[in-house]
């Protein structure tokens, strides 16, 4: 069992709170569907192996009405018929941003996301992935565990229903 290394929200509260404010701003804009945002955060957390955020985002997705079946299919979304073209574009972008290859985010992935989302939605998706990656890296480095999680750092808000 891993032992928590540091309470980073307490040790670096200014920086951590800045991430919290950025996440709140993204949510408040209401430009990205809540369930899609949680799927993107969950897929990013899967890729980063962040157990704490896997727990939080799967619970939040279920609370927002996401189905258990779709959560089970998320790691294999490319092979699953359960995701819409816009959700696929968002998930592909999340994966490309999370695991940057030598050329960065491939043009085809970005163009597909751009076809499905307006500039503000696309900007918020990119910021969502960036903040999630930062928080995943904090949790993995600090060895924060889901069996005794602190309170979620960000308030839960709902802006609109999923398609």
Automatic annotation (TrEMBL):
Ranges where the record places region Disordered: 144-163
Highest taxon of the lineage: Bacteria
Domain Carboxymuconolactone decarboxylase-like: 16-96
InterPro entries given in the database record: AhpD-like, AhpD_core, CMD-like
Pfam families with a match to the protein in the record: CMD
This protein's name: Carboxymuconolactone decarboxylase family protein
């Amino acid at each position: 069992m891993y032992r928590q290394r540091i309470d980073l929200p307490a040790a670096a509260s200014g920086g951590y709170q800045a991430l919290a404010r950025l996440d709140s701003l993204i949510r408040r804009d209401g430009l990205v569907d809540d369930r899609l945002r949680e799927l993107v955060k969950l897929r990013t957390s899967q890729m980063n192996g962040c157990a704490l955020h896997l727990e939080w985002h799967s619970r939040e997705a279920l609370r927002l009405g996401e189905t258990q079946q779709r959560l089970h299919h998320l790691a294999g979304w490319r092979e699953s018929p359960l995701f819409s073209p816009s959700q696929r574009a968002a998930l592909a972008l999340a994966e490309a941003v999370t695991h940057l290859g030598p050329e960065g985010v491939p043009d085809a992935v970005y163009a597909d996301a751009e076809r499905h989302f307006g500039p503000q939605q696309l900007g918020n998706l990119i910021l969502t992935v960036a903040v999630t990656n930062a928080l995943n890296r904090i949790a993995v480095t600090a060895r924060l565990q889901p069996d005794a999680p602190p309170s979620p750092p960000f308030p839960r808000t709902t802006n609109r229903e999923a398609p």
